[in-house]
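Rotation project, supervised by the postdoc (A.L.). Task for the rotation student: set up a whole-complex structure prediction and record inputs and outputs verbatim in this book. Inputs entered:
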Amino acid sequence: MFINDLTFEEMKSYIEEIGEKKFRAQQLFTFFNKNKKWDLNSSSNLPKDLKSLPVREIKIFEEYHSKIDETVKFLFELNDGNLIEGVLLKYEHGYSQCISTQVGCRMGCSFCASTKGGRIRNLTPSEMAGQIYLVENKLGINISNIVLMGSGEPLDNYENVIKFFDIIHDENGKNLSNRSITISSCGIVPRIYDLEKLKKPINLAISLHSPFDEDRKKIMPITNRYSIEEVLAASKYYSEGTGTRITLEYTLIKDVNDREIDADELIRITKDIKVHVNLIPLNPIKEYNKGKTSPKGAKKFQNMLLKGGINATIRRELGSDISASCGQLRRKRLENENSKAN
Ligand code: SAH
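Outputs recorded:
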């Protein structure tokens, strides 16, 4: 057990269990999650025996600043030496950070770099929160939006992700509103229903990428487990139960999912759901070198959706000079190390 992985409730129980004074729980929780510190020895108000509690640390390993916009990409080092990545994006209304939820991923989407080496392990709550705190500390900023869209499938690490939500939302810590959090998933249906039961207005984004099961199976193996119909039914249920709008992420791949029949079918299957479609230009990786839809093609696809009454935007390409897409940086780094070793 690492003390900073605990939610405030868990910390209170733990402190009671070890016979410490009640108020110590708040001191500890605040130390990690409000003061954003790791080294208990630097605390002036904790007693000695609490200072020796095991803490899980995470560090900034490298950072890359885009020269074309204000995007910053971070590689973080975990206490077992694993590397994960996150991206800080600057928008008009503030800073948004995209964080990883697993080391690697086991979902096997064909176009995604994060999954190529499989899943190494889940991230713990403090390792997710740490990605935020380190960047806030380093740049002296306040991150006002968090998206779980980095490496990993958050709903494949459900318990830790829920604890992370508790920690980041807690008024004794960062106190971030649930509406400022987005969880992105390839569509693990039972976990979407579990998430709805929490009745928190956390935004749900679903990586759809094709409206046809047969086509989606070719790029997203999870479709063999849960059909598009099941994923959308769960999403609708989530949207209605939490009062949130669903985002559908749709990476445009030339002649694979950017045809007129794709737009028509997408319009048909999302008719009765409150959705917003986020069209993402493909960021090609070497294992998946299918073409990128041209900007003109993307605009055309967007217009077809808009005409069909679907709200759709094209995601701006931020930080394209620093491999700012999912898992590409860590992978590059691992490949460099392998080639050095050979
Ligand atoms: N596992 C989660 C979150 C991580 S991926 C999910 O599936 O949603 C975040 C988003 O980036 C997903 O929509 C994913 O499909 C997309 N993505 C991954 N690799 C990409 C690439 N090379 N080009 C464009 N989008 C990509």
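Student's summary: The CA atoms of residues 28 and 46 lie 8 Å apart.
Supervisor addendum: The chain has one domain: 57-314.
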